[in-house]
């Protein structure tokens, strides 16, 4: 033991009440008084002992338990359960104890290893041992928040003098001042911008700084700085830091921590949850194993989130099913955690040592001090299977009995697939199916998708999983599976049947049971009857405008919203006297409201606003793009595109492009080559196989004018890309149909490949082509012949007008009548404009008497036309139009 | 040859009449072509060699055919596409074919 420690220990042993002088102590220990005196003074300077001035000066141990050598500190407790941290903990202690005020230190480690938490532990430790006052501040600052705005960052850190810049209305303390006497924690220190570094280094070296705007006064603050970064310390910025930071603490990743520690971390987090929920949590041994083994790249942070999610799911079940215990089992785990079970076998021995083999279940108590224990619970292991059985029983009752199977297999499957989806929600399903089977089904689906060139929907995956599980149970119970229509199925769906046979083999291998051939028939039906919809809820991006000055942003957004008849775009004004921090708060609030997963487009004018994008992106976790210039056309274009559902990237590119290409755009359009105005899109996975075949088939079987109509094949491999391509086509021309096995866009008419191949859809397609072509040609000929109005305009207006009538009357005109009606009304308007007398309708009065309602409705729908073309449509004229609807269904 | 066209109010067909007259001139054909409303047909049919109906008054076809049959005049409905696109040439040819 060193002399210093010996002296310290002696004082501690004597207790805080016993005050001794240097000479007394020297005598007792047989040491020289001078040495003892110097050591005592050093101990006092380090804050480890108390001193009472006088003659002689008396020294004594500190009050209470807050001595490093007496009590167990937070760091010591930590070291007990986390052996891998012992060296790091020693480093941390040294950094805190280093005289006079501790040493700056840098914490390295991957995302989620607990850097912030460790910094907090350092602070706690410093308070525990009395190095810092009980109320010593612990100030956290994330450099990334202000990485793009060095000025704001510096003012945040060091404070601002009143009048330093517009808006600095009073003196403001910076974080450095707020941390005086304590610890300042700088997270993501690699994001500290160059401008901030120099000032910061000066402060680190000398402890002096100035508020922004101050010139003469130098301020001092006693702050221990703890920094953290995920970056490689060899990077250039960090190198300059490293010179000034003597203590580097590298925290190990979760994998490096080893299984034993991961186990104690896991249980600790569960215990926190138990504390939060205020009740005991039981965790099945399998669930614990999954948590110990699953791939968890974001370390403890992720582990914590996953455990919280799991507990939430178990809690929901606990509440809804009114169970008397909160039990976490494998079914509650998120899918990726479940996959950890597949890795259990790699760590079998180690796991057995850590968690033992005798426990089915672990229990954590809600008390803060609570311990977890392994405990046998009889009733939990079988519950999964009970549930499955119950579910299967339900499904059998719902029409899956063997007798019924023999009736209508297609019908059965359609209802099975659809019904399963409706009755049982996804979460439920995942819970009642053996993870092993889910895994197997995923494999089968991958295989089948590749072979069949088609994407199977989630409901098929669940349907299949349930089906395989059922089949397995049935076989295990010796029940037969019969498929009476197997020959029919085999002949009708050759390709699917061949794939199904392969899949049956895969299942046989996996469950180690022989399956009857009928099974292939069932699988075939799954593949055939999946009319999957690829359309997802299309999310639109938010548009937010922020500009300096009062009312600027609001004005632009008002114009935009009015023009587009929407409330889509949002505005925030930044009056010069307002602090940009408070505007940031507002911006974050709005961003939370309107931002979606698709992202947020920010249009700003200048200054600190440019940095908002990154802050919002970080705070809310949605992609944000910033357009650093803003004018009303920008806002209109952004809003219009955003409302159409374009992606953030697309809108950003287009809006940025406005200013750059506005002038070039016009001549470009003129040289654009002729594109047929109509199109039919055929889509398949490759865009080359069946889509190309369909294109040829349609071209050969349909009558059409290739100046007006073109068939476009579309590739589906990347769904998002396929959708955006489709949107692009949609903007340029009218899409009459999409032929595909997937619904790509609900607004478009759609035929499945089968319908086209077997010819069922041809009549429908032909009719639509005829109508659209006739419509386009009508446009041309009307243009030539109408004297008073523009042919194209009037036709579009009339079409809209007739469309509304059809809708209101729920009476859709057949092709012939419709073309006639278009032409009739166009001519009518033209003649009225020209002042030609209306033709009288014979027996008008009695006709009107009989059809009062129809008359007023059609009269009403004609109003927009009358207004726009400034004509008065007579009663007689209306009667003629009424006839189109009356005789629509009495066709010869 | 006299060709009578008929539509709801004789309005839209009048455009087609112009086009058919042009087509007839090109063919060097001497034809009288005119349009009336459905109710007027009975006053004009006696002067016509052929009666053509606009597709929107297709429902009158049976009735008109009866009228035509008693006078030996062929009656039919104009193709919707030709009608909609005001294809005078096609409709003229259609009328000529009917007469043969």
Number of strands of chain A: 24
**CATH architect. name of chain B:** 3-Layer(aba) Sandwich
- How far the N terminus sits from the C terminus of chain A, by CA atoms, comes to 115 Å
Give the fraction of residues assigned to helices of chain A: 40-55%
SSE class of chain B: alpha/beta
Whole-number tally of structural domains of chain B: 1
In total, the number of domains of chain A comes to: 7
Mean pLDDT of chain B: 85
Parts with pLDDT < 50 across at least 5 consecutive residues of chain A: 65-70, 370-396, 400-428, 532-537, 660-672
Largest sheet of chain A: 5 strands, parallel
Q: Output the structural class of chain A.
A: alpha/beta
Q: Give the CATH class of chain B.
A: Alpha Beta
Total number of beta strands of chain B: 4
CATH fold category name of the largest domain in chain A: Rossmann fold
* Number of alpha- plus pi-helical segments of chain B: 5
CATH homologous superfamily (4th level) name of the largest domain in chain A:
P-loop containing nucleotide triphosphate hydrolases
**How much of the residues of chain B is beta strand, in percent?**
15-25%
Give the tags:
heterodimer; A: 892 residues; Rossmann fold; four-stranded mixed beta sheet; flat; B: alpha/beta; four-stranded parallel beta sheet; 5 helices; 48% helix
3D architecture notes:
The complex is a heterodimer of chains A (892) and B (100). With 892 residues, chain A is of the alpha/beta class. Chain A has 7 domains: 3-67, Winged helix-like DNA-binding domain superfamily/Winged helix DNA-binding domain (Arc Repressor Mutant, subunit A, Orthogonal Bundle); 78-252, 3-Layer(aba) Sandwich (Rossmann fold), CATH 3.40.50; 255-372, no CATH class; 384-431 and 438-450 and 458-466 and 480-508 and 519-530, no CATH class; 542-659, Rossmann fold; 678-767; 786-887, PTS-regulatory domain, PRD, CATH 1.10.1790. The relative contact order of chain A is 0.04. In chain B, strands 2-1-3-4 form a 4-stranded parallel β-sheet. In chain B, strand 3 (50-53), helix 3 (61-71) and strand 4 form a beta-alpha-beta unit. Chain B is globular and about 35 Å long. The interface between A and B is medium-sized, with 36 and 29 residues.
């Amino acid at each position: 033991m060193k002399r210093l420690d010996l002296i310290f220990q002696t004082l501690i042993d004597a207790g805080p009440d016993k005050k001794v002088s240097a000479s007394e102590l020297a005598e007792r220990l047989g040491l020289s008084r001078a040495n003892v005196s110097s050591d005592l003074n050093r101990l006092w300077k380090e804050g480890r002992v108390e001193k009472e001035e006088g003659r002689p000066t008396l020294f004594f141990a500190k009050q209470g338990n807050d001595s490093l050598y007496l009590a167990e500190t937070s760091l010591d407790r930590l070291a007990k359960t986390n052996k891998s941290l012992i060296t790091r903990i020693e480093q941390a202690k040294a950094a805190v104890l280093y005289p006079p005020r501790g040493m700056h230190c840098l914490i390295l480690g991957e995302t989620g290893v607990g850097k912030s938490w460790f910094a907090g532990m350092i602070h706690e430790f410093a308070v525990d041992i009395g190095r810092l006052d009980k109320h010593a501040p612990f100030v956290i600052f994330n450099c990334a928040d202000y990485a793009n705005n060095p000025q704001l960052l510096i003012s945040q850190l060091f404070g601002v003098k009143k009048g330093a810049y517009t808006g600095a209305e009073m003196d403001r303390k910076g974080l450095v001042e707020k941390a005086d006497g304590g610890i300042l924690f700088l997270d993501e220190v690699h994001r500290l911008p160059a401008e901030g570094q120099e000032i910061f280094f000066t402060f680190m070296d000398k402890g002096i700084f100035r508020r922004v705007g101050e010139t003469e006064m130098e301020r001092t603050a006693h702050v221990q700085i703890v920094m953290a970064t995920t970056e490689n310390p060899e990077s250039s910025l960090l190198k300059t830091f490293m010179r000034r930071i003597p203590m580097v603490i590298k925290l190990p990743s979760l994998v490096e921590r080893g299984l034993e520690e991961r186990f104690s971390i896991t249980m600790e987090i569960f215990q926190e949850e138990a504390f939060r929920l205020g009740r005991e949590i039981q965790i099945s041994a399998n669930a614990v194993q999954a948590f110990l083994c699953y791939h968890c790249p974001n370390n403890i942070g992720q582990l914590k989130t996953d455990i919280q999610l799991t507990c939430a799911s178990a809690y929901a079940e606990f509440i809804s099913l009114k169970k008397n215990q909160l039990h976490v089992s494998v079914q509650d785990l998120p899918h990726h955690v479940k996959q950890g079970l597949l890795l259990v076998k790699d760590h079998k021995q180690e796991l057995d040592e850590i968690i033992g083999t005798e426990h089915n279940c672990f229990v954590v108590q809600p008390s803060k001090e609570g311990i977890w224990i392994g405990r046998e619970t009889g009733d939990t292991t079988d519950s999964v299977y009970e549930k499955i059985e119950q579910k299967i029983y339900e499904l059998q009752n719902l029409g899956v009995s063997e007798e019924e199977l023999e009736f209508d297999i297609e019908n059965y499957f359609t209802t099975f697939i659809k019904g399963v989806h409706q009755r049982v929600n996804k979460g439920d399903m995942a819970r009642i199916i053996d993870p092993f089977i889910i895994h197997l089904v995923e494999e089968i689906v991958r295989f089948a998708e590749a072979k069949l060139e088609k994407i199977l929907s989630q409901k098929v995956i669940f349907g299949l999983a349930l089906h395989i599980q059922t089949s397995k149970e049935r076989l295990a119970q010796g029940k037969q599976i019969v498929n009476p229509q197997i020959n029919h199925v085999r002949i009708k769906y050759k390709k699917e049947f061949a794939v199904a046979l392969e899949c049956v083999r895969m299942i046989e291998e996996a469950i180690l049971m022989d399956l009857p051939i009928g099974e292939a028939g069932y699988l075939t039906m799954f593949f055939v009857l999946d009319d999957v919809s690829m359309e997802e809820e299309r999310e639109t991006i938010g548009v937010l405008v922020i500009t300096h000055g009062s009312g600027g942003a609001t004005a632009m957004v008002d114009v935009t919203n009015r023009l587009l008849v929407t409330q889509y775009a949002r505005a925030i004004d930044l009056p010069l006297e307002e602090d940009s921090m408070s505007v940031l708060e507002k911006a974050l609030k709005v961003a939370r409201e309107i931002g979606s997963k698709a992202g947020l487009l920010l249009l700003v004018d200048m200054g600190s606003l440019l940095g908002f994008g990154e802050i919002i992106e970080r705070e809310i976790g949605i992609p944000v793009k910033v357009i650093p210039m803003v004018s009303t056309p920008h806002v209109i274009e952004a809003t219009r595109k955003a409302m159409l559902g374009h992606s953030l990237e697309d809108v950003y590119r287009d809006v940025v492009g406005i200013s750059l290409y506005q002038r070039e755009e016009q001549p470009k359009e003129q040289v654009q080559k002729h594109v047929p105005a109509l199109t039919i899109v055929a889509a398949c996975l490759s865009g080359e196989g069946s889509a190309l075949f369909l294109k040829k088939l349609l071209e050969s079987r349909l009558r059409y004018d290739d100046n007006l109509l073109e068939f476009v094949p579309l590739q589906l491999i990347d769904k998002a890309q396929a959708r955006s391509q489709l949107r692009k086509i949609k903007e340029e021309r009218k899409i009459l149909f999409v032929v595909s096995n997937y619904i790509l866009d609900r607004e478009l008419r759609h035929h499945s490949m089968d319908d086209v191949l077997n010819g069922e859809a041809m009549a429908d397609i032909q009719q639509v082509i005829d109508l659209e072509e006739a419509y386009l040609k009508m446009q041309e000929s009307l243009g030539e012949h109408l004297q008073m109005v523009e042919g194209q305009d009037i036709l579009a207006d009339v079409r809209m007008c007739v469309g509304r009538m059809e809708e209101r009357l729920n009476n859709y005109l057949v092709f012939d009548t419709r073309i006639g009606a278009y032409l009739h009304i166009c001519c009518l308007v033209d003649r009225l404009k020209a002042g030609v007398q209306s033709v009288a309708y014979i027996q008008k009065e009695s006709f009107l008497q009989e059809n009062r309602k129809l008359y007023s409705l059609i009269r009403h729908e004609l109003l927009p036309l009358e207004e726009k073309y400034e004509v008065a449509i007579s009663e007689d004229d209306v009667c003629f139009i009424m006839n189109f609807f009356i005789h629509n269904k009495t066709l010869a | 040859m006299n060709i009578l066209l008929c539509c709801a109010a004789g309005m839209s067909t009048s455009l087609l009449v112009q086009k058919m007259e042009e087509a007839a001139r090109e063919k060097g054909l001497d034809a009288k072509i005119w349009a009336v409303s459905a109710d007027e047909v009975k006053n004009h049919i006696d002067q016509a060699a052929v009666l053509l109906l606009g597709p929107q008054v297709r429902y009158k076809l049976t009735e008109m055919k009866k009228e035509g049959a008693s006078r030996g005049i062929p009656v039919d409905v104009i193709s919707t596409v030709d009608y909609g696109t005001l294809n005078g040439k096609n409709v003229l040819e259609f009328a000529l074919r009917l007469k043969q």
